[in-house]
């Protein structure tokens, strides 16, 4: 049995005979509706990623953007509804997904998959979880839905580049969430197909959210996509349709937003009856920063001892991939990436800042490494402005390599000292990567949760939550609320006051 089928996707004129069973949205709906069993190692990784999402949600609990999103959910109590991490009660599922999605994304600290397009497939978990909680689904249903959400987003990211056309990567997330919810709730393929089309149509946006002066919308964008996907599923279940063919239409996404009428994309999807295993190709973060900075942080740690006195540094050039150079490097041409007063969202997309701080501190922290005091230190600013990136074709080739053993997201650092001496070192993948020096397993995910939840979630509540997640595949229908958690009074007291909104 073939594990994957590769589907050629292109624009079709309205006058062409293009049957619906050839539409990409229909093929994705067929994958979501396929009653294939979830492999054991995939179930285990789903547990890991629920823990991972919850960890970063706990760490971001008191941050202003997260508190604002949570405030929007709290005014919408609903039964049965979904849980909001850190809060007692049940809330409208789309708003529970919104609040939890912002919490997961705020610190740029959860999992990633990089190929033709970027993705953070852990963004699928909050909306699929909220929909399953509201629908009274079982733990096995949830696991199935999350596996499908990961599969579809990752498969789209393998074959369809969005960022070269300045479309944000959440355009792959809306369809994947719709498919994941459809899989979890075992919806008819017709319903899933219409929901995918609506979700894509309502979640395509430009990459300005990750350019220039980056705001809190960077965290809100995937949460919005998840919320929109839940609403799309709701409408489709009520019999409403979507623009079609959404990708391939004469005025569809490919023709007008991506490569144009002549573009061709090759999208791999699981063959009928094949397991959905894409989650195993994704990887989480040990450090709270853009994924392409993970290996560079580890490289900076390794270089500290070889350099000694950092004031001797004259220049630093990070030779890296096109993606790293143009998104978080000097190739982005964003002066904000060198601004000591820039937002945290901008700093975690400046590999120049990240390399300088990692080199100076030898450690990385999701709050301290980005504090205004840390960013504005004169010696940091001086070193930061000596760092530049350069695209290297070999690193770009390895970034896109299909062989996991060759695929790389790192860089080669060339450091010139004031004496003229040059120090060179490179690192292909982060230490925590599956191919890295210290790959993450269950114990590392649990340790990450306990570290980030410390002082936010009481130890006994941590134990209860981890126990529930560990047995998620066995939770009966109606018990998925056990995957929520509450926070301490002290954590609640640290939440900033949020002004009243309109609603």
Automatic annotation (TrEMBL):
Span of domain MmgE/PrpD C-terminal: 287-470
Catalytic activity: (2S,3S)-2-methylcitrate = 2-methyl-cis-aconitate + H2O
EC number of this enzyme: 4.2.1.79
Domain of life, per lineage: Bacteria
Record GO terms (molecular function): 2-methylcitrate dehydratase activity
Enzyme class: lyase
InterPro entries: MmgE/PrpD_sf, MmgE/PrpD_sf_1, MmgE/PrpD_sf_2, MmgE_PrpD, MmgE_PrpD_C, MmgE_PrpD_N
Keywords on record: Lyase
SUBUNIT field: Monomer.
Family: Belongs to the PrpD family.
Name listed for the protein in its UniProt record: 2-methylcitrate dehydratase
